[in-house]
Each structure stands twice: as C-alpha cells, then as structure tokens.
Amino acid sequence: MAMAGDRRRRLLVLVPCPYQGHLNPMLQLGAALQLTSSFSVTVAHTEFHFPNQSNHPQFDFLPTADGLSDADKSSRDFTSLLSKLNVNCKISFQESLTRLREQHKEEVTCIIYDALVYFAEEVARELKIPCVIFRTCSAANTSIYNEYPRLREEGFIPLQDSKALELVPRVHPLRFKDLPVYKFEGYEKLLQLLERSNQIGSSVAFLLNTIECLEQSPLMKLRGEYPVPFFTIGPLHKIAPPLSSSSLIEEDQSCITWLNKQAKNSTLYVSLGSVASIDEKELVEMAWGLANCEQPFLWVVRPGLVHGSDAINLLPDGFAEIVGERGRIIKWAPQQLVLAHESVGAFWSHCGWNSSLESISEGVPMICTPCFGDQRVNARYLSHVWKVGLLLEDMERGEIERAIKKLMTSEEGEIVRQRMTDLKHEVMHSIKEGGSSYNFVHELVKYINSL
Ligand code: UDX
C-alpha cells in the first residue's frame, strides 16, 4: 500500500503483445497514465518487433528474451508464435523483473499486460505483484470468447457453412460468419489460446480501449462475467498526449504534402493494417477498383501485404499511367495524421480495432473489408450497429468501384457520413472533463495508487 506522504514515483511495468495493433494502445496507455499521475513506466518488450526506444524517452525499456527463431518470426502462424512467446518469455521476464526491483530498490506497483501475453500474469502471480489485464480489442469481441465453450456444447462448433448467415445465440447482432474465429485449419488451437487469454487469473482489474457509449450491451455482459472493476478508457490515442511514432515501419510523411493539394473530403484513404495479407488477384482487383472510382486515393501497400512478394511490383500494367497524380501509393502512413486531414473523406479499412477507433474519432466514414479475427466483429458493428460504414466483402473491381462511389458521392453516403460525424461527437465527448473515459482514466489512476 502507498504510505501517506509517500512522494516517490510509483513504478508501472507494461507488457505489450509485440504487434503494431497491440503496441500502439499499450504505449498510449502508458502516456495517458503519466499525464494524469507521476508514474515511472517501464515497457517490457520481446526482442521480436522491439520498438525504437529513442522515440519514447518518457519510458524505460526492458528487453525480454523470446527464444524465437527466424522461421518463427517470418511465419504467419500467429497461434504458434504467441504460444511460444507465452512459454519462452516467462523465465526471462521474471529474471529481468527481479533485476529491475533490485536496481530500483522499490516494488513494482502494478504490471499491466496485454491479454494475449498472459505469461506476464503468471509471473506477477508468482512474484506477488498486482496485475491488470488489458484487452486492446473491442468489448464485443472480448465477450465472444466466453461464449465459445457453450457454443461447443450446443453443437454449433465446429461451425457449419450452412449456418453462416444465422444469428449466433446470445451475441446479437453477430452472425456465425462474423465470429472472430470461424473456420480455418487449426482454428481450435487459436480458440484455446484466445479462451486462455480471456482468463484473468490474479488480475485485479480489466482495462478496455473502448467507450461506454459505443458498447453498452457487451460491456454489461462482461461486467457480469468478471468479479473485478472494469475501466473503459478509449479512445486512448486521443487521451494520451501525441506520441512520437511507435510505428515498426518508417512512416512516409510526404503523403501529407500530397493530401494538402486535394480538395476537402475528396480523398479515399486505403489501408489493411499491419498484419492482414491478400493474394495477388485481390491486389489487382483493388488497383482497378481504385483506378475506376475517379476519386483521389492514398493507398498503403505495406511490405507483406501480399505474402512473399513486394506487392508494389505486382500492380497491373498501365495502372500508374491511368491513375497519374490522382493516386498515391506509400509503404506506411502516419495514419492518425492522415485520418485527421481535411481532404480525407473516407477510409477503406480492414477494420482493425485501432483503425476503427481512429476513424470514428475523426468522423471519417468507412468501407469495411474485414480480413480475419476481430475485424469481422468490428465490421459488423461499424456497418450494422453504428451504421457508419459500408460493408464490402467481395474484392472485385466493379463492387469496389460501386462501394467507393456510393460512400463518397451518393446521398446514401452522405447519411453515413452524417452518422459518423454524430458518433465522433459522442465519442469525443467521453474524453472531456466529466465524460465516461475521462472519469475512468482518473479512477484507474486512483485505483493503481491504492494498490
Ligand atoms: C491487429 C488486428 O488486425 C486487429 O484486428 C486487432 O484489433 C489488433 O491487431 P492491425 O492489423 O495492426 O491489428 O490493425 P489496427 O488495430 O487497425 O492497428 C493498426 C495500427 O497501425 C493503427 O494504430 C494505425 O494507426 C497504424 N497504422 C496502420 C499506421 O500508423 N500506418 C499505416 O500505414 C497503417
């Protein structure tokens, strides 16, 4: 317990899952907590995807040996990679934490860990350090993993194609095809990992990068399922002071100069996030859809977007000439700046949770093309519940062209844009003084200080 009059800075250890979509919200959380109270923050990170420390002088970094081979690191088998991390990192994390406590000659106040790297909770439990679980996805997605055991008992799993469009019992409004783990080889192993990561163990509180007004019903369900306080503290990228880049790929800032030349709301921003990959045929269909849509576009074609190839070399002949100055292709964008730019009028996205929150926070309506996992859940909420995006499931040039024109030039698109503007105002209200996320961040700080 903190002693009365104890003026020492209290030490927090953050343990992110080493992927871009998980690292960003964890660093934002660290910065948001530092803004509100004088915590010292140490980020314990695997060697794999180790971030550029010099961009984050406000944090200390603690490298954690992960024992991954080069083959593990380049594999697309995330289940196996995460399972290995959860085994390999445990001892190394425990040892470095013990050294850290000796060096600082003080206790760690709290470990906040990404639910996917649950080895941190096991270490916290053994060392008797309080810990807090942080799920970086939506509440709706989090709550679904608790349903799978019952769906199994009821015979819905293995999932059947014939039921794809039916509503899943108890998780309205998701259809079976919207479930994060639906059907692919090895899905049972992934499910086991995700179900495990939903177990809070010794965690004393549950953090979610979401907002009360967005997810009332899944939040109510979760609060009934876990006997610990919940803190909904999103959108973290708007609560934290602007961070220097935590991108694992260098951001191409020159696109902002290009955006400056485009008309207000004219440009489509296209990105499928940091992990999703498509095949060559889909890339070519995307290219022709963009070429034919007649709108300016900024397209992130990151290394790995088409697995095993440099996707830029796979763009169809004649594409660059037809598009000319109307289109700009880059490897990685300063996404938050791009979405906040007044010339960006829509976002064609894979609907990762961070991208969804970033788009909502800027009031940019979306075209939703989920690729895997929680993206399907997010896409269902964006298109069907909040109705701030259009679903585009078929990567076919004609469908793509129609979706873009509908969102960016039709009356129906204007209604979607208006709804997104309204949602933005609601969400941004939550981070103002007296708003739900504002209050939860302050309560969280008090809670951590009481540990
Ligand atoms: C992954 C999963 O795909 C996602 O569904 C899950 O919620 C988190 O992990 P990712 O593909 O990385 O996420 O997508 P997303 O959650 O949207 O996160 C991507 C992050 O990278 C965002 O913060 C975005 O701003 C950033 N980004 C993306 C860039 O900075 N530049 C880019 O060019 C693209």
CATH topology of the largest domain: Rossmann fold
Query: Mind telling me which CATH architecture of the largest domain this is?
Result: 3-Layer(aba) Sandwich
Portion of residues within helices: 40-55%
Strand proportion: 5-15%
- Give me the number of helical elements: 18
* Rg from alpha-carbon coordinates: 22 Å
Structural class: alpha/beta
Low-confidence stretches: 1-7
Give a short summary of the structure.
Helix content is 43%, strand content 14%. It has 451 residues and is an alpha/beta fold.
Polypeptide structure, described:
- With 451 residues, the chain is an alpha/beta fold.
- The protein folds into two domains: 11-146 and 198-234 and 432-449, Glycogen Phosphorylase B (Rossmann fold, 3-Layer(aba) Sandwich); 254-429, Glycogen Phosphorylase B (Rossmann fold, 3-Layer(aba) Sandwich), CATH 3.40.50.2000.
- Helices cover 43% and strands 14% of the residues.
- A seven-stranded parallel β-sheet has the order 3-2-1-4-5-6-7, with helices on both faces. It has a six-stranded parallel β-sheet with strand order 10-9-8-11-12-13, sandwiched between helices.
- Helix 16 (397-409) packs across helix 17 (411-430).
- It is globular, with a radius of gyration of 22 Å.
- Mean pLDDT is 94; it is low at 1-7.
- Bound molecules: uridine-5'-diphosphate-xylopyranose.
